[in-house]
Fold this sequence. Notes:
- It is elongated and about 65 Å long.
- The strands form 4 sheets. A 7-stranded parallel beta sheet has the order 6-5-4-9-12-14-15, with helices on both faces. Strands 1-3-2 form a 3-stranded antiparallel beta sheet. The chain has a 3-stranded antiparallel beta sheet with strand order 10-11-13.
- The chain is built from 10 helices and 15 strands.
- The longest helix is centred in the N-terminal third of the chain and has 15 residues, at 3-17.
- It is of the alpha/beta class.
- It folds into 2 domains: 3-59, Arc Repressor Mutant, subunit A; 66-250, Rossmann fold (3-Layer(aba) Sandwich).
- Helix 6 (100-107) packs parallel to helix 7 (122-128).
- Helix 7 links the parallel strand 5 and strand 6.
Amino acid sequence: MLTRERKDHILAILQRDGRVVAKAVSQQLGLSEDTIRRDLRELAAEGRLQRVHGGALPASAAIASLVRREEVSAAGKVAIGQAAACMVRDGQVVMLDGGTTALQVARHLAPKLRVTVITHSPTVAAELGRHPTIEVELIGGRLFKHSMVSIGAAAVETIARIRADIFFMGVTGIHPELGLTTGDAEEAAIKRAMSRQSAETVVLASREKLGTASPFQIMPLEEVDGLVVEADLPREVLQPYLKLGLSVVRG
């Protein structure tokens, strides 16, 4: 079997089963595990999958550029943003992550809402600057241009002095076994810090992120309180997350 044929076969298994086990593929094709692992490495380098111990999982589309991410699940992100915005109550201190879905949360906060929103995203802060009654606190630090958020020691130090009621977290991958993941280690550390300082953490979970993984773990799913998802997601897609005891809000 040619290399391209092997890779197509691996991707077909990934699409069908949601995961690839290197040993099983090697036995099925009568090839060495080293050969299959090499194929997985090359496919991972192409962004076609995410390697994990013993095999691979689907790679998240959410690790693309910011412009490209704005095009992915655009209508679903609006619905998720609306649903998440409805969870916010007057008087709360809200931490709001960066990213395209978090921006939709900012855009849909009620016009007369009186809250304090703390964010490390200049884009989200600029959007909230148009809101007449919301106080905005912008966390500084080194700008991570891929996601347009502040990261680094200065940001972590500022976050450590805050106590928030709720944190709306953006991620690039959500998987029942691997938990919440993203594409950058420092960005993952900022998300953990924001979650630690919040009484409740809710994940903004557009459909392209479910069942996928990115290189850096943020935290296990057991450490968050719930997900906000699109209304039309089949229950069987959500079942693994419901089994973990997460609350699920449909947008």
